[in-house]
Amino acid sequence: MPMGRVTITLPAEILSDIDNAGKNRSAFILDAVRRELSRRRRMNLRKSLRNPHEESLKHADAGFDAWAGSLPEEDGSDLVDPASLAPVHWVEGKGWTGGRK
Questions:
Q1: Is the pTM of this model over 0.70?
Q2: How far apart are CA 80 and CA 88, in angstroms?
Q3: Is 77:87 a contact under the CB 8 Å cutoff?
Q4: Among 5, 51, 89, 99, which is least packed by CB within 10 angstroms?
Q5: pLDDT tens digits, one per residue of 62-91
């Protein structure tokens, strides 16, 4: 991977802690930056899933309807919640609910 150079200023106490954690400051900081970027991607994904864009909801609904419509009747009518092994079904506007339709 091509490398770039960046100069950062950190408090001496932090540098000392980094040096105590390992011999290679660059490797330590690279690992920390990768972890932070990964954490932020997960955080943004969770935020997006909690607050989907309205157009995304239309596509998701269309995708679910297409998928559910493609199931054989016996597969689509008896979906089961794997945690409780209880039958569930989809109620428009409410989501997955237990029990029969």
A1: no
A2: 6
A3: no
A4: 5
A5: 776 677 677 666 555 556 556 666 777 777
